[in-house]
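DM from R.C. (forwarded with permission)

"hey, sorry to bug you on a friday — could you get me a structure for this? deadline for the figure draft is monday and I only need the backbone to look sensible"
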Amino acid sequence: MQYDLKVKLNKVDSQQYRNLLIPELDWALNSAEELFIKMISKPRLKNHLGFETSQRTIDDIRVIVEEPLSIPIVNNFLSLPDNYWHYISSEVLMDKGGCTGVIGKVRIQQHDDEFKGNPFEESSFEWREVNANFVGNTLKFYTEGFTVTALNLVHLRRPLFMHNAEDFRGGEYNKLSGGVLTGKQDCELPDHTHREIVDIAVLLITGELQAADYQLKQAKISLNEIK
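My reply, with the result:
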């Protein structure tokens, strides 16, 4: 991917931006990967993209979808996993009286929603629905006369930071968020996404450098329907 990035950035036989360092290329590729995932999984604006809207978008990011993970709930609070990135769906195990281990659907509510005390919107053991919302790094559940014991969570996890530290001077470099990177980490997403991620990285770099061919590179991204 770094070779592809250099070729597309420098044009053929030009080496115009040969002074870009490996950590800078790594940063651009990871920024591009993050944008690529967000445009598919949780776009802020409605467009033709979206999570699992087609087999292509399913295949694009399927490797970072975490399967249902059973997490204990304590006093109606649950701590999110360290690699949690975006919520997809979840179910809870509920207990009431002699009924235990009943599966209920989780409804994520906004903080300003008037679901508490509303007989049509409040949590219900009988209807197998439980309201919840996010509070910091936890998920808070609102129960009415019953308890929730565990959550089966499906979520997008944060992808591993791809890098090529082994080819940098000394075979390592310091990551901005802390820690030392050594060796290498390839992109986790399927091979068919790599060129699109590189195209986004090229666009990010040319935008920062105010390159003259920025519009041309932006047009190529549009052809892949990831604009």
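R.C.: lifesaver. Residues 2-62+159-223 form one domain.
me: no worries. The chain has a mean pLDDT of 85.
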